[in-house]
Structures are given as structure tokens and as C-alpha cells.
Design a protein that fits this description.
The protein is an alpha+beta fold. The protein has two domains: 4-86, 2-Layer Sandwich (Phosphorylase Kinase, domain 1); 91-254, Aminoglycoside 3'-phosphotransferase, Chain: A, domain 2. It is built from eight helices and ten strands. It has helices spanning 4-14, 52-62, 102-117, 130-142, 160-169, 211-225, 230-237, 244-254, and strands at residues 19-23, 31-37, 41-48, 71-76, 81-86, 91-92, 177-180, 189-192, 195-199, 206-209. The strands form three sheets. The protein has a five-stranded antiparallel β-sheet with strand order 1-2-3-5-4, covered by helices on one side. A hairpin with a 2-residue loop joins β8 (189-192) and β9 (195-199). α6 (211-225) crosses α8. The longest helix is centred in the middle third of the chain and has 16 residues, at 102-117. The structure holds adenosine-5'-triphosphate (ATP) and magnesium ion. The site of magnesium ion has 5 residues, from loops. Adenosine-5'-triphosphate binds at residues 23, 25-30, 32, 44, 46, 69, 85, 87-88, 92, 187-188, 190, 198, 200-201, 203.
């Protein structure tokens, strides 16, 4: 991984003096630090080999449309990319589990997605390409990058090449493009009390089928609260004709990442 001296050199280009502390939350491949300046101003520094440029472009596009962190800098270095953001006030929705009822968590989850999916897309919004995503899934399969321990329980005993064949048989033919989050999980939206204060982790966000987010939301609600809460999510989101095949497809697609 990127060595800490390189990271500090980068930070010194932007901050005169600061302290840094690693952030251990999050499941992705990135390394994250909380940067504190003047003892009380906090920033988030996220570093990974590649892919953060998309996150940067998505924050830029969303600015003024939805609550997102401000970008302090984005930097494309020889061996890594880095993005530094203002710290959003509040806690991720994940941390409201146990503080809020399951109904309230699911409602807020649905409403925050509806807000994002209701944005008017223009030519500047980043576009996600489904064929590229399927090609990346295939690459991960061929290169042993699929974490078998992390598969859904029903897929654990399946052969992953067979799962990939099933995926191909489910590729949707009709598209309902909206601005999607791309990794719509409970720890990627921040609430300050009942107000959403930040959409974060937008590496895979951009214009794509709305079921990219709906699929992951259904999976997460099922896993956390049980299938009884999915209908509430659909009601609050405002979806009455449900495309089960697309839900299956997008959940399966995520198994390869
Ligand atoms: N701007 C921010 N303000 C406040 N907290 C943040 C911010 N960015 C990240 N965090 C915290 O750090 C955690 C991890 O960040 P993030 O979701 O961007 O990375 P990740 O889940 O590791 O994702 P990736 O898959 O992109 O590597 C978040 O769940 C949140 O708790
Ligand atoms: Mg995250």
C-alpha cells in the first residue's frame, strides 16, 4: 500500500500543520485518515490506487443539488489517487441502528434514495456503463478477485463461474437511467439527527439504472431487518411495479466486487 511518507508529503502541500488519525470504518480498498487542522477543523483523506477521480467528479456534479462534502483537493499521483473532503456532520445511517426504529431507518433510507434518483440529469453527469461493469466482474472472476467468503448465503456453495453465467442470463434489456449512488449502503449516507447531511463514497456513482441502487438497498434491508421491511422501502421510495429480475441481477453483479 501507499507509504505514509508519500501521504504526508501530499498533505504538507495543502496544510501548514495538521494531525492525522486512521479511520477504520468502511469495507472498501481505500485507506482513510481523519485530518485535523487548528485542533478543531476536520477533513477526511481517502487514498486508493485508482478510481477516486469518479468520486471527485460526482461530488462536483452533486454540489448544490444534494448535501455532499466539499472537496479540499483531488490529486492524481504516480502510484495512487487521493481525495480530501470536509467532514460531514452527523453519523452514518448504520450508526442509527438501535437508536432509531427499523421503520425509521428504512424510511430515511428510501427517502434519501428517492431524493437522489429525482435529480434532473444533464450532460455533465458522469455516466456508468453496464457493459464495462460486467467486464470488470468477469476480470475479477478470472483473476481470483471474488471473495467467496463474502458471497450471499445462497451463493456460498455455488461455483462462481456458474454464478457469472446466471448473471449474463439476467442482463436487463430495458434501462431506467437516473443519477445513482452506486454503493447505496447504510454506511454511505450520513444523517445529522433526522436530516441527511451527506451522501458519501460515490466511487461507483453516476447515471445508471435505478435498480443498481434499489437492488443493493433490498439486499441490505433483507440482511439487516428481514424481508418484512422491503415493502415499506418500496412504499416510501414510491415504487409499485417491482422488477424482481433486475433486483436479482444487480445483487448478483455486486457479488463480483
Ligand atoms: N466526508 C466524510 N465525512 C464524515 N465521515 C466520512 C466522510 N467520508 C468518509 N467518512 C467515514 O469513513 C467511512 C469510510 O469512508 P468511505 O465510505 O468513503 O470509504 P469505504 O467504505 O472504505 O469505501 P471504498 O469502497 O470507496 O474504499 C464512512 O463510512 C464514514 O464513516
Ligand atoms: Mg463506504
Amino acid at each position: 500500500m501507499v507509504d505514509i511518507d508519500q501521504i504526508r508529503k501530499l498533505l504538507e502541500r495543502h496544510f501548514n500543520s495538521y494531525t492525522d488519525a486512521p479511520i477504520l470504518d468502511g469495507a472498501g480498498e481505500s485507506v482513510k485518515y481523519k485530518i485535523t487542522v487548528n485542533g478543531n477543523e476536520n477533513f477526511i483523506l481517502k487514498i486508493q490506487r485508482a478510481g477516486l477521480q469518479n468520486e471527485y467528479l460526482n461530488y462536483k456534479w452533486l454540489k448544490g443539488k444534494l448535501p455532499v462534502p466539499d472537496i479540499i483537493f483531488f490529486s492524481c499521483e504516480k502510484e495512487f489517487e487521493a481525495i480530501c473532503l470536509t467532514e460531514v456532520k452527523g453519523k452514518t445511517l448504520e450508526k442509527y441502528m438501535g437508536l432509531w426504529t427499523p421503520e425509521k431507518v428504512v424510511e430515511q433510507y428510501a427517502l434519501s434514495l428517492k431524493k437522489m434518483h429525482s435529480l434532473t440529469i444533464d450532460k455533465y453527469a458522469l455516466k456508468q456503463n453496464l457493459q464495462n461493469r460486467i467486464a470488470a466482474a468477469k476480470y475479477n472472476l478470472k483473476n481470483g478477485k471474488v471473495d467467496k467468503d463474502n458471497l450471499q448465503p445462497e451463493n456460498q456453495s455455488e461455483d462462481i463461474s456458474e454464478l457469472f453465467k446466471t448473471l449474463l442470463s439476467l442482463v436487463p434489456t430495458n434501462h431506467e437511467p437516473v443519477f445513482t449512488h452506486g454503493d447505496f449502503c447504510f454506511d454511505n449516507i450520513i444523517f445529522n439527527d433526522t436530516q441527511i447531511s451527506g451522501y458519501i463514497d460515490l466511487v461507483n456513482g453516476g447515471v445508471a439504472d435505478k435498480y443498481q441502487d434499489i437492488g443493493l438497498a433490498v439486499r441490505n434491508i433483507n440482511e439487516t431487518f428481514g424481508s418484512g421491511y422491503v415493502a415499506l422501502f418500496f412504499r416510501r421510495y414510491g415504487l409499485d411495479k417491482i422488477n424482481e429480475d433486475k433486483i436479482k441481477f444487480y445483487i448478483l453483479l455486486d457479488e463480483f466486487f
